[in-house]
Amino acid sequence: MIPSNTKNVIVFSQYRSGSTALCNFLGEQFNLRNFGEVFHVDTPKKKEKYLNFFNNIPTIIKIPGNNITQIPIEVLKKIWDNSLIIRLTRKNFLLQSISWYSANASNYWTSFDYIKKDYSVPILPRSVTDKWIKNLHFQNHYVQSLQKRFDLEYCYENLNLSKSPVTKNKRHSNYDQLYDHVHKSVKKILKSCPKCINLIYNGNS
User: Fold this and answer.
1) Whose CA is closest to 135, among 106, 100, 109?
2) Residue 52 phi/psi, 5° resolution?
3) Rounded to the nearest 5 degrees, what angle is found at the Cα of 120, between the Cα atoms of 115 and 122?
4) Is residue 38 part of a domain?
5) Which of 19, 31, 28 shows the shortest CA–CA distance to 65?
6) In terms of residue numbers, what domain contains 58?
7) Is residue 3 part of a domain?
8) Is the CB of residue 24 less than 8 Å from the CB of residue 100?
9) What is the pTM for the complete model shown?
């Protein structure tokens, strides 16, 4: 449970684990100013604005994967020491991988990005897919193994975000083809990490 008097929240998450929806939901529930992914390399003005507001108004941000390594140490210490920290993970690596591939291939990252009712995702060369899934696998391990203080541990499969303005992305018109394509890369990547093989089908869709 999140204390009602929480002033600042950081969601440190795996990619494609519902962090955008969670930030929107908690922002509305606890009246927190949602700055989203402020430390993305493409949003320097958002980062500056967030740091100016920090500790002046209640805030919530998300830090996905090893993006945390891009934050200056003194800045990270300041915000980490003065925030409630949530680690957000996802059990089902296959469905996470499909979502990750789809977002990268289509550049549709949240439900706000969808402007067409039906659309298909490009099926890209195997080398590209393998590279993306391998990177996701690395990022997942990074988030799970980071030795820092975490106040709450959330899992995508256990979240109830029905009241969030961000909803699950629509299923693609070529989903079956996409599923088979990504599944092959997932099996290939996890062969090099036997302890992770059970991640493929864990959790719910």
Assistant:
1) 100
2) -70, -35
3) 120
4) yes
5) 19
6) 8-199
7) no
8) no
9) 0.88
Domain membership of residue 205 (yes or no) is no
Q: What is the pLDDT of residues 26-70, one digit of tens each?
A: 999 899 999 999 998 888 899 999 999 998 999 999 999 989 998
Burial class (CB in 10 A: 0-12, 13-18, 19+), 56: exposed
* Residue 82: CB atoms within 10 Å: 12
Give the dihedral of Cα atoms 74, 77, 79, 81; nearest 10 deg. Answer: -150
3-state helix/strand/coil string of the chain = CCCCCCCEEEEEECCCCCHHHHHHHHHHHCCCEEEECCCCCCCHHHHHHHHHHECCECEEEEEEHHHHHHCCHHHHHHHHHCCEEEEEECCCHHHHHHHHHHHHHHCCCCHHHCCCCCCCCCCCCHHHHHHHHHHHHHHHHHHHHCCCCCCEEEEHHHCCCCCCCCCCCCCCCCHHHHHHHHHHHHHHHHCCCHHHHHHCCCCCC
Residues in the chain: 205
Of 62-66, 70-74, 117-121, where does mean pLDDT reach its minimum?
Answer: 117-121
Supply 80's token pair.
């980490």
**CATH classification at residue 21:** 3.40.50
In a domain, 82, yes or no: yes
Least confident of 94-108, 134-148, 163-177: 163-177
Domain total of the chain: 1
